[in-house]
């Protein structure tokens, strides 16, 4: 889905949801809760194979697949294939728990390239958006990176912004881009104009402790299972939607 439009330049409820989610552990793992696997390996395989044989997977089935997958390494590729075919927000969240399995991140990239979003805690479905939460740093390049972020956010459209936050009493920042607050042509032009800056800022800032990348409600923390390099590929896929290209 393409996300909803806000009644202003930035959806305030999404910003509030980001603030609530910022300090939650593993916010990229908001999969529908499933009971842990029980029983011996044969029972796990039988249940897993039964789920994989389904034509369609609802959210509880997706959650169960994700819970069972670590107990059956030989079925991981099949699980990834089933989640990729399901393609919904819960399935994409499940794929993000299996980034080491071939095909998982490629499926996530395809979902982002078609504008898939997911809900944030206490919020309706998220719009299409990019956000980069990062903390102040004494590293030598940081002042230049912060100035670049300020210049990017100075765009008069209001679709780009840089918010100053406080985390543990220290300054922190959120650079965000809300492309679906703009008409399609303006959105595509702005996305093309800022793509290189967003990629550079992410690549440099994502290596700082505490940095989090948000894409359409999916969160990628600095200590999460998705590497900075892989995040860069997902960001490129997200920009595909923003620039108006067909996935």
Write structural notes for this entry.
The two termini are 13 Å apart. The protein folds into two domains: 12-24 and 126-242, no CATH class; 32-96, no CATH class. It has helices spanning 12-21, 41-52, 59-68, 76-86, 89-95, 104-113, 142-153, 184-205, 228-242, and strands spanning 130-135, 160-167, 170-177, 212-215, 218-221. It is built from nine helices and five strands. By secondary structure, the protein is of the alpha+beta class.
Give the helices and strands, then pairings:
Elements: H1 12-21, H2 41-52, H3 59-68, H4 76-86, H5 89-95, H6 104-113, E1 130-135, H7 142-153, E2 160-167, E3 170-177, H8 184-205, E4 212-215, E5 218-221, H9 228-242
Antiparallel strand pairs: 1-3, 1-4, 2-3, 4-5
Helix pairs in contact: 2-3, 3-5, 4-5, 6-9, 7-8, 8-9
Brief synopsis:
This protein is α+β, with helices and mostly antiparallel strands. It has nine helices and five strands, in the order H-H-H-H-H-H-E-H-E-E-H-E-E-H.
Strand content: 5-15%
> What structural category characterises the helix and strand content?
alpha+beta
Distance between the termini: 13 Å
Number of helices: 9
Number of domains: 2
General form: elongated
Reading the helices and strands in chain order gives HHHHHHEHEEHEEH
Give the number of DSSP strands.
5
Roughly how many Å is the radius of gyration? Answer: 19 Å
Strand order of the largest sheet: 2-3-1-4-5
Reported for the largest beta sheet, the result is: 5 strands, antiparallel
Mean pLDDT: 84
């Amino acid at each position: 889905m393409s996300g909803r439009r806000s009644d202003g330049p930035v959806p305030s409820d999404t910003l509030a949801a980001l603030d609530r989610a910022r300090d939650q552990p593993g916010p990229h793992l908001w999969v529908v809760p499933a009971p842990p696997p029980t029983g011996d390996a044969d029972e796990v395989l039988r249940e897993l194979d039964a789920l994989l044989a389904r034509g369609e997977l609802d959210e509880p089935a997706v959650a169960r697949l994700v819970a069972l997958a670590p107990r059956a390494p030989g079925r991981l590729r099949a699980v990834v294939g089933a989640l990729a075919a399901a393609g919904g927000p819960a399935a994409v969240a499940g794929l993000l728990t299996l980034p080491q399995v071939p095909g998982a991140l490629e499926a996530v990239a395809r979902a982002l390239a078609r504008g898939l979003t997911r809900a944030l805690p206490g919020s309706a479905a998220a719009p299409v958006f990019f956000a980069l939460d990062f903390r102040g740093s004494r590293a030598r390049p940081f002042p230049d990176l912060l100035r670049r972020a300020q210049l990017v956010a100075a765009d008069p459209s209001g679709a780009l912004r840089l918010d100053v936050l406080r985390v543990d009493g220290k300054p922190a920042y959120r650079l965000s881009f809300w492309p679906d607050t703009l008409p399609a042509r303006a959105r595509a032009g702005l996305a093309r104009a800022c793509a290189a800056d967003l990629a550079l800022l992410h690549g440099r800032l994502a290596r700082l402790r505490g940095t989090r990348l948000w894409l359409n409600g999916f969160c990628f923390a600095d200590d999460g299972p998705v590497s900075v390099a892989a995040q860069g590929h997902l960001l490129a896929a997200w920009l595909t939607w923003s620039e108006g290209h067909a996935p």
